[in-house]
Design goal:
five-stranded mixed beta sheet; alpha/beta; 11 helices; single chain; four-stranded mixed beta sheet
Amino acid sequence: MIWVTVLKHILCRKSLPVCRKFSTKKYSHTVHLPKTSFPQRFKRKSKVALGLENQRSSEQELYNWQAQKEDRKLFILHDGPPYANGDIHIGHAVNKILKDITNRYKLLSGHRIHFVSGWDCHGLPIEQKALQAGKTDFRQLSPSEIRVKAKAFAEDAVRRQMTAFKQWGILADWDNSYLTFDKNYEAAQLEIFYRLYEKGLIYRDLKPVYWSPSSRTALAEAELEYNNSHVSPSIYVKFPLTPEKLPVGLLENVYNIPVYALVWTTTPWTIPANQALCFAVNENYSVVRCNTSGNKALIGDHYIVGTDAIPALEEALDAKLTSLVKLTGKDLMNCTYSHPLTPARVHPFLPGLHVSMEKGSGLVHTAPAHGPEDFIVAKKHNLPLMSLVDEDGNYTPEAGEELVGQHVLTKGNFTGKLLIFA
């Protein structure tokens, strides 16, 4: 028996010629399979090429066939174009496959479909990717040179993305896709713009926009990328009220005593550009005295704050605030204050719909050049738009000798001149 022989060799610690003999025996001649020259496996390159070829022909034939059925009701799906700024990702898959499902459903429902595919070939994301690919500093190039590089990058990205979409089997007239840098497309845009202008729908005005110091360009909201590691100090600032413009009720109770508006902000770098303090017309305010606080600079002074904000302020400042005078938002309407960094500058209190008691002190520091709500208030009340920051994000000479040249998101945001009020 075989097993007896194997066991015998194991016990004797000898080699196993019998096992080796049986393990090398071939049985292929006993298995009857059909003979074919078709390869069992494709090489990766040939498999992809074959798949693309088959899909391009079959899907394009289907699209062209149904496009000729003019007796069917036409269904048009205009593609919201993807950015031509790189290779495809899962977002492209979700977008294109869902649209293709819709198109195929309409096709099976008896419609003739027209999927208008296209690419957005303009914008900062494309320019950045083009410059990164060439490892080029944009400061060394003219705007025209940047556009040339961006266009070449976008053309290559369109080619690669279109190849992938075809491989997925997306039904579309790919040979007639629109590209936003195409001259005919731009001409059509200008023609529509002129029609709007003729109808009085176009006007010229100022609006707040996001600005990127690193790229030295304006940003759309969709282009914003927040640095989660960036830390901006949260400070409370004392704005001294001008005695000549104090509310009547306040003059009667705290006569000849300095009163400050206490304001909380997370953007200290905007304080030099302050032009107003905003309050909520329908809220109540109080004049409080700080009896004790972890910050000695606050003790003994009198502050105007939102009444409902007092408990949160006491906790945040580790302070005990005693209420002395009650005011309404309307009482602050004609008040003014001196700028804490430049006392000669006197600015108004103004009503603002964006003011709430949920955060801060119920008073909002307003720098018209550095915030959407601030800009709206400034435009309504004709405040000057004073920007003390250049395109690189550094303070200009108008900000003062101590701040000039400092970057507002680094050293300029932590300078001692601003933090003395914290």
